[in-house]
Design a protein that fits this description.
Number of helices of chain A: 11
Strand content of chain A: 15-25%
CATH topology of the largest domain in chain A: Rossmann fold
Order of helices and strands of chain A: EEHEHEHEHEHEEEHEHHHHH
CATH superfamily of the largest domain in chain A: NAD(P)-binding Rossmann-like Domain
Distance between the termini of chain A: 37 Å
Number of domains of chain A: 2
Structural class of chain A: alpha/beta
Oligomer: homodimer
Largest interface: A-B, 82 and 82 residues
Number of strands of chain A: 10
Chain lengths: 305, 305
Amino acid sequence: MQWIPRPCDELDNPRGILFLTNVIVDHLVVLAPGLLGASVARAARARGLARRITLWARRPEVRAALLDQPWCDAVADTAELAVRDADLVVLAAPVERIIELAARIAPHLPATALLTDVGSVKFELCRQVAAALPPGPVFIGAHPMAGGAHTGWEHASDDLFEKRVCFVTPAADAPAEAIDTVSAFWRGTGAEVVPAAPAEHDRIVAHISHLPQALATALAGFLATHPGDWRHLAGNGLRDTTRIAASDATMWIEIFQQNRTEVVRALDGCLAEIQALRDNLAAKDWEDVRARLVAGKTWRDGFKP
Amino acid sequence: MQWIPRPCDELDNPRGILFLTNVIVDHLVVLAPGLLGASVARAARARGLARRITLWARRPEVRAALLDQPWCDAVADTAELAVRDADLVVLAAPVERIIELAARIAPHLPATALLTDVGSVKFELCRQVAAALPPGPVFIGAHPMAGGAHTGWEHASDDLFEKRVCFVTPAADAPAEAIDTVSAFWRGTGAEVVPAAPAEHDRIVAHISHLPQALATALAGFLATHPGDWRHLAGNGLRDTTRIAASDATMWIEIFQQNRTEVVRALDGCLAEIQALRDNLAAKDWEDVRARLVAGKTWRDGFKP
């Protein structure tokens, strides 16, 4: 692992001091690359974050196709072989398969290896991956908030993470150097790194990602019980509000399973808010309804453009 | 009022038959033009839907400014004067002021005048406007589903209604010719006219427009009780789901007031759906949760692109 000096933005750094903000990984290994994992490999190649990139995928035909990509130096036949001399391993499998993948490669990792992942739920996962590892290798969980309408490595891009939030969620006892290195790697892909404890991460995404998904799904499911052509009469409001209802069901089952407690808690809070708006509307308490409309508007107006 | 033949789309009309689908109004009067009313005047001028366009606005400085517009032939000092020899009057005031405006101009309308409006709620409004009119003039309510981030006549455009749905909501006893003429006028602005009884219209928009607004407001209001920087960590899902929470509070109070019963009913149905999703999530009934995710996705995938 090599640290390279990189000048920070002039605004942050008026005197032009060089900070250690970037890292070059000697051997980067991405396991089970889909959209996110392959975009990590592409970003690493495009931005010079790794000297050597090894990939492993479960299906032989995917391995064959990956070998043809300019962002792939080698393909391993097994995950165990792939990680033998890895410096940084990215566990890019679907969230419920990351733990078993970590357990499988654990005996084959060099003692100095770092591991990170792309899973969208962190508390259980970080705990169990850490428990599966022998002394030596360190896992620093990550959750890049990036995606697209299409999944699969074929849709990966060099700049998927550019200016997107990437949570980095170290365990309380993680070594500072490992945290710094994994954070620097993610920052190198273009992401804005946000540190958070795993449990805090899960509470935040339950509110800002999983709750909106549940509401969009419920609204779409409710409207599905009404005439189908109503949706063609709607303006952009309904279109925007329900867009994520079209997300992949299998991915969301996994996220809901992993973050069930926090999602239920967020739903309870939001249900109380909807019920209060409904009750005050029914009671013609227009002062209360106006206050709710204004509070929502004030919050939404605070979004960055 | 003059009907002009216009060939229909080739797809609908393979034999090239001419249908009476367009109308020219001799004297169009738009009262209280804001974004929607001024866009009606602009569309009428740009598309040749009216020979003469007269406007009236409450504030003198607005009247002076309107007189300079190429889509305005005359400005009247009062609404009563404006409608004296009108063929078609567009009541473009905010929804809660349309009824009083109709009552005010009623004694001054020619017996042959037609009236329409742009109000987003229809049942009460259509009933009361019809009741305010003397025998002769006919009111055919309309609700063009168009708008923008900015209100006010300054932001009007020639093509605001292009390909947007415009509900036309005649009373049960409205003469067919009046319905046809008002429908043809709205179609002439570029809108896709959808006929609906006033009560049916209110039930539809309660579901496809007012319910999404209430949910976005409640979600934004709920998240406003959490740390403010969470919103900067969110992806596009939260951004889309809450976009309409930033809508104008005064406009929405009026809509909720006018359509309270239907909005409360839609909220009750949607609350039951959200509660069921929450309960099955809490109970780990993953088969049920998956079915809900799939139902929502199927419905959303059915949107036109």
